[in-house]
Design goal:
The chain is of the alpha/beta class and 359 residues long. The protein has two domains: 103 residues, Immunoglobulin-like; 231 residues, Glycoside hydrolase/deacetylase (TIM Barrel, Alpha-Beta Barrel), CATH 3.20.20. Helices cover 27% and strands 25% of the residues. Strands 1, 4, 5, 6, 7, 10 and 11 form a seven-stranded mixed beta sheet that branches. Strands 12, 14, 16, 19 and 20 form a five-stranded mixed beta sheet that branches. The protein has a four-stranded antiparallel beta sheet with strand order 13-15-18-17, with no helix packed on it. Helix 2 crosses helix 9. The chain starts with 15 loop residues before the first helix and ends with a strand.
Amino acid sequence: METAPPGPFSLRMDTQPMLRYLLPLLLLTASTGAAAASHAVAFMYHRFGEDRYPSTSIRLEQFDAQLDYLQQNGFQVWPLERVIEHILRNEPLPERTIAITVDDAYLSVYEHAWPRLKARGWPFTVFVNTDPVDRRLGGFMSWEQMRTMQQAGVRFANHTASHDSLAARRADEDEAAWERRVHADIGRAQQRLHEELGAAVDQEPRLFAYPYGEYDTRAADLVRRMGYIGFGQHSGAIGTLSDRRALPRYPMAEAFAAIEPFARKAASLPLPVAQATPWEPHITTNNPPPLTLTLQQPLRGVACYNAAGQPLTLTWLDDTRLQVQAAERLPHGRSRYNCTAPAGSGRWYWYSHPWLVDD
């Protein structure tokens, strides 16, 4: 989860010089191609109105304000699978298309989010980790509640059964044992979804969200081989160049749910990254990691930041290749590099590369 809005959307004092540099470039940046591309934005939530958990919950007044903003500013809210179908076929989507997703199937989704979205006739997708539901743990929805929601058009998808991190290896398992365990975990969740919610959960494209947004290349490849489109918790808009093993979603929680950054994220476009090297998020050595991005075409005004909104060193290798690197070691756990560029008309291109640091 982000601790602050990244890049030019942060109001930190150390980003203001970069803002003053970037803003004049708005009129110089070509905005053609953005409207013709197939792109959309997905938001990710966990809890609603559960103030005990501010790092994963959004206050109800914040959520109401976000929904009001989307409705008042011409955004179209589509089912996530419909968005992905268009992306896979490279078919244009309406400008300002949004998908709403929720991870973990907490009870507050049923009590607070669903009534608000249902009143507007808006679809959304819930990624379910099935073990807590099967155990009837407090704070989670029941299968009966999910069936009621499904009958009203809510979609449900795979978030594993256990909610264990797919990037974690147990001390007593080799790679083959790890793969068997993760494959069984994802498969068990899909089986339980099918048993409780029917064949609708098996329809293509099948969607999967990584627990904690954590994955490595081996896990992402396994998810792909199992026939899923994967979703992380790193920021950015989704486009035809986005890697289908781990598509971005903007995380939403109390600390960064204000309308101004939300509006900029809702209107963002995918930075045209054709290749990221290394793609592997898991860092065991070489910290801070260098990241080389190859853009589909030259682009002015690119700037990159860490998760706290602090500028990163950026070196252009040629017209379309740039190398990004933090000046200091990334902290243990989840981190990221965020890169943005002005797209014209007050909109921004955005790309986020997640890191998972062991040391």
